[in-house]
UniProtKB/TrEMBL annotation, chain A:
It comes from the Bacteria. Residues 66-254 form the ABC transmembrane type-1 domain. Signal peptide: none annotated. Keywords: Cell membrane, Membrane, Transmembrane, Transmembrane helix, Transport. The lineage of its organism: Bacteria, Pseudomonadati, Pseudomonadota, Alphaproteobacteria, Rhodobacterales. This is Inner membrane ABC transporter permease protein YdcV. It holds the Pfam family BPD_transp_1. The keyword Hydrolase does not apply. Belongs to the binding-protein-dependent transport system permease family. CysTW subfamily. InterPro entries: Bact_Polyamine_Transport (IPR051789), MetI-like (IPR000515), MetI-like_sf (IPR035906). GO terms for cellular component: plasma membrane. The chain crosses the membrane at residues 12-35, 65-88, 100-126, 132-154, 187-213, 233-257. The keyword Transcription regulation does not apply.
Automatic annotation (TrEMBL), chain C:
This is Spermidine/putrescine import ATP-binding protein PotA. The lineage of its organism: Bacteria, Pseudomonadati, Pseudomonadota, Alphaproteobacteria, Rhodobacterales. One of its GO terms (cellular component) is ATP-binding cassette (ABC) transporter complex. Keywords: ATP-binding, Cell inner membrane, Cell membrane, Hydrolase, Membrane, Nucleotide-binding, Translocase, Transport. SUPFAM superfamilies: MOP-like, P-loop containing nucleoside triphosphate hydrolases. Belongs to the ABC transporter superfamily. Spermidine/putrescine importer (TC 3.A.1.11.1) family.
Length: 266, 311, 367
């Protein structure tokens, strides 16, 4: 394309760099203070230490909370992605009456504050006599993750030539085999994106967890509890820093694999 | 005609099978039925998760607290109270104000960034997107806490400015104030602004910009007359994605709002916690939803009018 | 086994989408081994009809039979038909070999046998050795051939083609047309071909069904449609046609003639003309059936006209002349037998004589 429209703009470049700095600095404080030799999280820094990481190892409740969050996150991401695939396929491939209203209905959690869902579900569950637990948290997360899954998968299905599936049927494959051999490979990037997105949302979700947690806390709930105890706090920071490192690593590995895949194709 | 050179195939001569049962055939005939069946589980969950709780919420909002239980006579008392007693109205207005400012600030600040990646990054766009969204893989709570560190009495800004000799005493308005909440909200929700903005900017057909240039527009004019209007869907989406969830936020105000920076979310949360007045909490939730819907409608109408004027 | 004349039988088929009727009471029979085309403008229902043959749309009314078997409850993956899609629908995540062999999965063949079959197909479509190429490395024409191979390898009873040549440029398209025709003759399978390009349909088909607005206007051989169209609609859809109103003139049973606007009285053979004296009639004359000369021809029917415009088209020129008694100009098409640099040697207003023979006249149903 013409290079006139895309002339480099120094001001914008500077802005972009500044933006990234402002974006990352607060986040980088977390690993920064996890190495700080002081139980107080404030400046000036007191020296480098790994003791908080060491303490983390022995602190069982932290690992339990982490494991709880992972469990809930995995279940929620898988279920919401599977349902999202079915819903996206139904929306884009079949002529249903009232489709528009249906899609709006499913997307509603995106436009309603989480606190309202948390509150409403709490009321419902308490009237039904269901005790609060990780299951109730999972249910709450499922409700807010489903719209995200559908929103991620819908463009993938829409951008997908429907005659591919028809060709597969024409060549002898029934619905199930067509899905496996044609649809699934082609929407796979969307599926992966949906899994990642919904896992992330569930993993970090606090507002609904606050209302729906029973005796087993998720990680955000645990962190919230620890915010009032300065002694425990640095090891929580260590945990968060670890999570940050792991996510960075995962993302870069995924990028690298994705890049390799593209290169193989060329 | 000779049926020569095609490879022999075994299924060609078998008579075609009609598919199994009558019910199955009914599904094959009716696309609508198939579609709804596929969406079944999703619909069930969403109904259970959205419709049922809201109905119950509505019902409870009409009850009154009585000891540890409820007086189930239907009454609009809670709604009347929420209208009359000033604290509710004030908090709600303040919440909308703070969310609104945060939304505007976020969208304004993120727009140039999204523009940069859409128009000025030619390789590795994906990498930039990931770079911008990676911070949000950390715990929301901890990011809020990080801002507490920055804005605090002995935090980064104050100690930095003091050691540079620019101020003598720490600035107190930075923390435990509405300003702190707004800054933190803007930072925390930036990703939700960047992605929709980027997507809508990326979609703009570059040849439209070339046409505008050809017809005499300089870069500024081109931006306001072509790029901005065409990116409006992204702006609207971003605004909604930030405004709506933040009105109900209570973590940020709780951690750094102080008494002046409290939001309606805090009050609702209290109703279900310490105050233990569930009916009132339900009422406030419904009133909040109502006002959000009203504001959203007004916003959409206004933007449609503005778009009509521009184009 | 003698090839059946009603290998595909479409009987009173209608298709409605909500309030919109896409196909109304369509019936036709397609013979085994025939190259049959569905021709019509966009929206006439031809693609919908094709998709009903494939099984992707159900019929609202009527029945479809293939090889004497009713198809209404048979889903697409069980039908003995295969389709070449307009977009080719080549699977991007599979290479050429896996694309072609896609439908063979259910046949429990050994890998060696499958590879052998794929190689045979690649030879047939003249792309030998392309097996390991990726789908996105192929040009449009190559993809089209892969789509063909993928369908033909399953040896269907009927091959359906949905405007397969539409995306190709003119020269490639003409080459593919010839190849397609030769292929069909070679494999002997019934082809049902959908197109909006009448030249294509006329070149390729044994018979053509002309469709418009969800109905079939006429089913006939190419020559039949071109030289003997039954209605004005068909006549104007295929090729160009000059239309003339006229009145029948009879004198007893011996003589019959048509008084046509601008052309005078034309004697016709009585076998052709069954209407009574004084009845209105429409006739048509194709542009190439006229001859032009500067002076009146010695014998035969002729009329003098004035040249309005001329268009130079390479192998022929198209002339528009106005004749007294007729409002619209008459189109005349003549081959450029001399080398001429443009049509400037015939100035506007030039008087020319048009002549034609009565056998070239087509009598159209008044509709």
């Amino acid at each position: 394309m013409s290079s006139y429209i895309k002339r480099p703009n120094r001001a914008l470049q500077l802005y972009a760099v500044l933006f990234l700095i402002v974006l990352y600095v607060p986040v980088l404080f977390i690993p920064l203070f996890s190495f700080n030799d002081s139980i107080y999280v404030r400046f000036p820094l007191q020296g480098f230490t790994l003791q908080w990481y060491g303490e983390l190892w022995t602190r069982e409740p932290v690992w339990n909370a982490l494991w709880n969050s992972v469990k809930v996150g995995l279940v929620v991401s898988v279920i919401s992605t599977v349902l999202g695939v079915m819903a996206a396929r139904a929306i884009t491939r079949t002529r249903m009456r009232g489709k528009g209203a249906l899609v709006t209905f499913i997307m509603m959690p995106l436009v309603i504050p989480g606190i309202i869902f948390g509150v409403a579900l709490l009321v419902l569950l308490s009237r039904m006599g269901v005790p609060l637990s990780l299951y109730t948290v999972g249910l709450g997360h499922l409700i807010i993750c489903l719209p995200f899954a559908v929103a991620t998968l819908l463009p993938r299905f829409e951008g997908f030539d429907p005659s591919m599936e028809e060709a597969s049927a024409d060549l002898g494959e029934n619905g199930w085999w067509t899905f496996w051999r044609v649809t699934f490979p082609m929407v796979l990037p969307g599926i992966v994106a949906s899994l990642l997105l919904t896992f992330t949302i569930s993993f970090d979700e606090f507002i609904m967890a606050f209302f729906l947690t029973g005796t087993d806390p998720t990680l955000p709930m645990y962190i919230w509890g620890q915010l009032r105890f300065p002694k425990e706090f640095p090891s929580v920071l260590a945990m968060a820093a670890l999570i940050l490192f792991v996510s960075f690593a995962l993302v870069f590995v995924a990028q690298w694999i994705g890049r390799k895949g593209l290169e193989d194709q060329e | 005609m000779a049926e020569t050179s095609l490879p022999k195939s075994r299924t060609a001569d078998r008579p075609p099978r009609a598919s199994g049962s009558r019910i199955l055939r009914l599904f094959q005939r009716s696309e609508s039925a198939r579609g709804y069946l596929m969406m079944g589980p999703t619909l069930a969950i969403m109904t259970f998760g959205i419709v049922v709780p809201f109905v119950i919420l509505l019902v409870i909002s009409l009850w009154t607290r009585q000891g540890f239980g409820f007086d189930t006579t239907l009454t609009l008392n809670n709604y009347i109270r929420s209208w009359n007693e000033p604290i509710y109205g004030t908090l709600m207005l303040r919440s909308f104000w703070m969310s609104g400012v945060a939304t505007v600030a976020t969208v304004l600040l993120c727009y140039p960034m999204a523009y940069f990646v859409a128009f000025h990054v030619h390789r590795n766009k994906m990498l930039w997107i990931i770079l911008m969204t990676l911070p949000f893989w950390t715990s929301y709570l901890l990011r809020v806490f990080a801002w507490k560190v920055i804005l605090g009495y002995e935090g980064v800004i104050n100690s930095g400015l003091m050691s540079a000799g620019l101020i003598e005493a720490p600035l107190s308005f930075l923390l435990y104030s509405p300003t702190a909440v707004i800054i933190t909200l803007a930072h925390a929700w930036a990703a939700f602004a960047i992605l929709p903005l980027y997507v809508s900017l990326e979609k703009i057909d570059r040849s439209l910009l070339e046409a505008a240039t050809d017809l005499g527009d300089g870069p500024m004019a081109r931006f306001f007359r072509v790029t901005l209007p065409l990116s409006m869907p992204g702006v609207i989406a971003a605004s909604f994605l930030i405004f709506i969830p933040t009105t109900g936020d209570y973590i940020t105000p709780a951690l750094l709002g102080g008494p002046d920076g409290a939001m309606i979310g805090n009050l609702i949360q209290l109703q279900f916690g310490a105050v233990n007045n569930w009916p009132m909490g339900a009422t406030l939730s419904i009133v909040l939803m109502f006002w959000i819907a009203a504001l959203a409608l007004v916003f959409l109408l206004v933007t449609r009018k503005v778009q009509g004027r521009i184009t | 086994m003698t090839p059946s004349d009603r290998f595909i039988s479409i009987r009173n088929v209608s298709k409605r989408f909500g309030a919109f009727t896409a196909i109304e009471e369509v019936s036709m029979d397609i013979a085994q081994g025939e190259f049959f085309s569905l021709l019509g403008a966009s929206g006439c229902g031809k693609t919908t009809l094709l998709r009903m043959l494939a099984g992707f749309e159900s019929t609202s009314n009527g029945e479809i039979f293939i090889d004497d078997q009713p198809m209404s409850d048979v889903p697409p993956h069980h039908r003995p038909v295969n389709m070449v899609f307009q977009s080719y629908a080549i699977f991007p995540h599979l290479n050429v070999r896996d694309n072609i062999a896609y439908g063979l999965r259910k046949q429990k063949l050994t890998a060696a046998r499958r590879a052998e079959m794929v190689e045979e197909m690649l030879d047939l479509i003249k792309l030998p050795g392309y097996g390991s190429r990726k789908a996105n490395e192929l040009s449009g024409g190559q993809r089209q051939r892969i789509a063909l191979a993928r369908a033909l390898i399953l040896r269907p009873k009927v091959l359906l083609l949905d405007e397969p040549l539409g995306a190709l440029d003119k020269q490639l398209r003409e080459q593919m047309q010839l190849e397609l025709r030769a292929l069909q003759r070679q494999v002997g399978i019934t082809f049902v071909f959908v197109t909006h390009d009448q030249e294509e349909a006329l070149t390729l088909s044994d018979r053509i069904a002309v469709m418009s607005g969800g109905k079939v206007l006429q089913v006939d051989t190419p020559a039949g449609l071109y030289e003997a169209p039954r209605t004005r609609a068909v006549a104007s859809f295929i090729g160009n046609m000059n239309f003339f109103h006229g009145t029948v003139r009879r004198n007893g049973s011996a003589m019959a003639a048509i008084e046509a606007e601008g052309l005078g009285t034309i004697p016709m053979a009585t076998a052709q003309l069954t209407k009574p004296d004084g009845a209105p009639v429409h006739i048509g004359l194709r542009p190439e059936k006229f001859s032009l000369s500067p002076t009146r021809p010695e014998a035969g029917l002729a009329v003098e006209g004035r040249l309005r415009t001329a268009a130079y088209m390479g192998e022929r020129s198209q002339y528009y002349l106005s004749i007294p008694g007729k409002a619209e100009p008459v189109a005349v098409s003549a081959p450029n037998t001399d080398r001429r640099m443009g049509a400037d040697d015939l100035p506007e207003g030039q008087a020319l004589w048009l002549s034609w023979s009565p056998e070239a006249i087509v009598i159209l149903d008044t509709d």
